[in-house]
Amino acid sequence: GASSVRALAKELERDYSNVHQDIKILSQAGLLLQDKKGRYSMPWDKIVTEISMTEWISPQRHASKAHSVSHSHHSPHR
Fold it and tell me: Is the pTM of the predicted complex or chain greater than 0.70?
């Protein structure tokens, strides 16, 4: 059911301000709903996240190559 920030913080045994911040982020992402009384609820039993590794690896690989070039560029000549 729907709960207030204070009730959630008490139930989770967490600091009110931390729970408030988490709820703010989840609400902005559209993962929580707020009713007219200001209580929050999650209309799903679970949330599944999918991360594409090619999108994550490609920028990392590019940065790594640029970093290697930078190092070889600055190496001292003997």
Answer: no
